[in-house]
DNA sequence: TTTAAGTCGAACAGTGTTGTTCAGGTTTTC
DNA sequence: GAAAACCTGAACAACACTGTTCGACTTAAA
């Protein structure tokens, strides 16, 4: 592999992230142009549009997972959840459309596979919190996980719509989730 | 207008709802075929794909709003919220993709306009609950509204993924939202 | 039963996308 | 400096979709 080629692949992935995040239907031509590269060159490195999307998503997910790896999820589960939110909301918001692109271009199996990394951390934290009595157990863990994602994405939407201040995002999400996850007090 | 034409328009709208709910990218040809009608006939009644989508969405929204009109939103705001959830979750789940189709085909202004009807009921209920001390006021109403929609949609996804029992949907959503909306107890 | 309204499929042009091929030019790399 | 790797734009076929036109046919309505 020539150094030239590696540089181009990197530029393509970078441009792919930008373009797909802006428009999940971005064409291969758009991405190539944004990368400052001919369309033919792009096809020389990625056989399909699908392969390209998959590579972009995997790269983004790997980076996200690396960022999460440096977060301390120990101690009080509720405070750990706050830290998880603080580390998650911005990358999620920035790559929301990328996920949409992946949903449309990738077969469900591959889609699930790429997600598993970061999703596992959420599951582990929630299960630990349930066992410690910090989070409710009257609803399935899968539902709490779904609510985590839904809430972060809702914040991303409100942010984009101008209804939510960037500074308020993390506290708002965390406050809401903690309230939703708190075990019900027996009446 | 001939009775024939009216019948066809109805069939087209019905088929449009079905097709778009199954696939937000359903083509005009697909919809015409599902309606048992030629493509030309469809274009005789709707100038654009956009006009067709808009008509389908408006019809769905009108029906939804009519369904909500027969629900009692008085009394305890918390119980009213439960009734709102019970009346909302199924139509929302069934037409989730329709909304996606609308987002892609309609200009933002028209999209917002169609939504206003049902959305207003949610806002009114939440504001009443806030004033009555039943719902939290430390987060903006717009955020609570966003959480309402996000939670219902999350349930729709979990339902489609087989992670949630249909019978459990309404209680799960209501329990989660009530917990999230409860005013924080001062520590 | 006549007439106007409506329908039908086939066919057409236009557009945008994907993925491929070609012939010639530029960079690495050794 | 020579060879291999790489890049390039232009052009091409294939496909799917939109929106329109045509001429012939069927149906509702008075």
Put simply, the count of helices of chain A is 9
Oligomer: homodimer
Number of strands of chain A: 0
Distance between the termini of chain A: 68 Å
Order of helices and strands of chain A: HHHHHHHHH
Helix fraction bin of chain A:
over 70%
Largest interface: A-B, 27 and 27 residues
State the major sheet of chain A.
none
Averaged pLDDT of chain A: 97
Approximate strand percentage of chain A: under 5%
Low-confidence stretches of chain A: none
Shape of chain A: elongated
Helix/strand structural class of chain A: mainly alpha
- The whole-angstrom Rg of chain A is 19 Å
Keywords:
0% strand; mainly alpha; homodimer; DNA-binding; 187 residues; elongated
3D architecture notes:
The structure is a homodimer of 187-residue chains. Chain A is mainly alpha-helical. Helix content of chain A is 76%, strand content 0%. Chain A has nine helices and no strands. In chain A, helix 4 packs parallel to helix 7 and helix 5 packs across helix 8 (141-160). The interface between A and B is medium-sized, with 27 and 27 residues. Chain A binds a DNA duplex (30 and 30 nucleotides) through helix 1 and helix 3.
Task: Summarize, please.
Two copies of one chain form a homodimer. By secondary structure, chain A is mainly α.
Please render the helix and strand layout as text.
Two copies of one chain form a homodimer.
Chain A: H1 3-22, H2 28-34, H3 39-45, H4 49-69, H5 77-94, H6 96-105, H7 108-131, H8 141-160, H9 166-181
Helix pairs in contact in A: 1-2, 1-4, 1-6, 4-6, 4-7, 5-7, 5-8, 5-9, 7-8, 8-9
Chain A binds a DNA duplex (30 and 30 nucleotides) through residues 1-5, 8, 27-29, 37-41, 43-44, 47-49.
């Amino acid at each position: 592999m020539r150094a030239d080629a590696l540089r181009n692949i990197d530029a393509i992935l970078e441009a792919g992230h930008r373009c797909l995040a802006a428009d999940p239907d971005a064409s291969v031509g758009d991405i190539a142009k944004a990368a400052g590269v001919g369309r033919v060159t792009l096809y020389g490195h990625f056989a399909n549009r699908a392969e390209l999307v998959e590579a972009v998503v995997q790269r983004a997910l790997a980076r996200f997972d690396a960022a999460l790896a440096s977060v301390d999820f120990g101690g009080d589960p509720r405070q750990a959840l706050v830290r998880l939110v603080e580390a998650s909301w911005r990358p999620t918001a920035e790559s929301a459309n990328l996920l949409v692109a992946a949903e449309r271009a990738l077969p469900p199996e591959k889609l699930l596979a790429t997600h598993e990394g970061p999703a596992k951390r959420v599951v582990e934290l929630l299960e630990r919190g349930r066992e410690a009595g910090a989070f409710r157990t009257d609803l399935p863990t899968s539902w709490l996980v779904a609510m985590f994602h839904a809430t972060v994405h809702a914040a991303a939407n409100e942010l984009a719509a101008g209804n939510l201040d960037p500074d308020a995002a993390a506290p708002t999400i965390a406050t809401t989730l903690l309230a939703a996850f708190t075990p019900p007090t027996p009446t």
